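Exercise 7. Given the encoded structure of a 96-residue chain, write a plausible sequence.
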């Protein structure tokens, strides 16, 4: 089932709380039961994007049966909005 790995240069005060929110959000977004979702938050202070250290992220998603070009557009918008709200990362500062 879905495994999501987030790498970001945004350090969180409470990464465990964020991981729980990220897990629930991922389950809702991917329409999968949360009991099958695995998420990982990785703080990486050396992550660069566009040649600088401004807030940024990379997200890898492994999932069966629901990744396709149509769905990926919907997922991208949802995750970018989530990371903007929770991490303060602008929409042009991440890759999925």
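Solution.
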């Amino acid at each position: 089932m879905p495994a999501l790995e987030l790498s970001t240069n945004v350090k969180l005060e409470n990464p465990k709380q964020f991981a729980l929110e990220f897990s629930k959000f991922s389950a809702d977004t991917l329409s999968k039961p949360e009991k099958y979702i695995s998420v990982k938050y990785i703080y990486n202070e050396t992550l660069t994007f566009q040649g600088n250290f401004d807030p940024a992220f990379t997200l890898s998603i492994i999932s069966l049966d629901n990744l396709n070009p149509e769905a990926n557009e919907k997922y991208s918008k949802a995750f970018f909005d989530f990371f903007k709200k929770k991490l303060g990362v602008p929409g042009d500062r991440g890759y999925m």
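Remark. The first strand starts at residue 3 and ends at 8. Students should compare their own answers with the one above.
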